[in-house]
Amino acid sequence: MNLGATELIIIALVIFLLFGATRLPNAARSLGRSMRIFKSEMDEMKTDKDAKTQANAEIAGNQPAGPVNGETPEETRRRLEAQQQAQPQVQPNQQVEGNQYNPNTNGHSTNQ
């Protein structure tokens, strides 16, 4: 969709008539602030992503995920399984002793 100069002038005129001369500077100022906030958040997300990638690379170290020279596929599978078992396993439905929050009881504990 190509907008020519005449179309842009018509759009600007319609916006000027709808919002008036008093609201346009405030709207432009608000738009500028929003764009600046959006840009800073995007930069922050990129920085966070780069930091996570770097941290993951440091954690992983130089351990190859694939076969090491001279390893058979069976040895590779065993090595990878051993690495996975060495990492702590988190189970989502672990039972914890003591008072627990139950959202169905409006904050009252069922373990009394």
Automatic annotation (TrEMBL):
Membrane topology reported for the UniProt record: Single-pass membrane protein
The segment annotated Disordered runs over: 42-112
Mind listing the GO biological process terms from this record? protein transport by the Tat complex
**What is the official name of this protein in its record?**
Sec-independent protein translocase protein TatA
**Cellular component GO terms, alphabetically?**
TAT protein transport complex
Q: Name one Pfam family in it.
A: TatA_B_E
Domain of life of the native organism: Bacteria
Chief location bin: membrane
Spell out the Low complexity composition-biased ranges: 82-100
What InterPro entries does the annotation carry?
A: TatA/B/E, TatA/E
Its keywords, alphabetically, are:
Cell membrane, Membrane, Protein transport, Translocation, Transmembrane, Transmembrane helix, Transport
- Return the similarity comment: Belongs to the TatA/E family.
